[in-house]
Amino acid sequence: MNSALIPNLDLRQETGALPLRLENNSNTPAVPGRHTHSLVILDNRELDRQCLAQCMAAQKADLQILAFGSIEEWKQKRDEYPPLSAILLNVGGKKIDEPTVSEQIRKLSSEFASTPLIVLADSDDFGQIVRALEYGAKGFIPASVSVSVCMELIALSVAGGIFVPASALFAMRHLLDSSNSTARPLSGIFTDRQVEVVEALRRGKANKIIAYELNLRESTVKVHVRNIMKKVKATNRTEVVFKLNDLFLSGSSAASSLC
């Protein structure tokens, strides 16, 4: 079975589910012309996409839910369906930065620029979410949400919004807090350029690499390193890194002792 058109069932109707008829290995609603727009679910796992589509169809009466293994399959029958409102790409447990996944997101978001592409994934990893948005997705929905919530989030994307899980916001806040706590021990001790060199030293980067990344001469980097060594009272690079790490861990009390 290459594709499936899933009926949108309105559970509030007294008559219950709409009758189905089997046509070309697809489930097609017996009542045509009921929907004005459609949602396409893309998932190469047939059972997964069929199950998801059936569940979503029971939640939303104004969208025709279509399930396909690829966008090419949908294109072959696109004239049979209402205008496309959104694309839901279910990547399951795959990583966003896998070449096949990232390329698919880029291609779909580029080809369907006016149609929101939403990624559905098993993970809510912050890095994966950021990459999905960078590649062109207009939303990222973790598989941990309910079907009803998933439909509401899709509606948000159709309306022009961009959704990311709350976990991503917490991760962002943690990164910002870490960044602020990192900057505080350095303030008042080093210049802005020295702070950049300090960060590079803590990562074990050589002078040539530091010079390249900061667009400096290697001789200039050496001058900064010598000045940093004087400020932290170190005699070599290893001791510099040790004292800098100690400075970051102990915070302002260690910073004041160096001044």
TrEMBL record:
A Pfam family matched in the record: GerE
Signal peptide per UniProt: none
Start and end residues of each Response regulatory domain: 38-158
Cited InterPro entries: CheY-like_superfamily, EvgA-like, Sig_transdc_resp-reg_C-effctor, Sig_transdc_resp-reg_receiver, Tscrpt_reg_LuxR_C
Domain of life: Bacteria
Residue stretches making up the HTH luxR-type domain: 183-248
Key words of the record: DNA-binding
Glycoprotein recorded as keyword: no
Record's keyword annotation contains Metal-binding: no
Protein name: Response regulator transcription factor
Organism in which the protein naturally occurs: Rhizobium aouanii
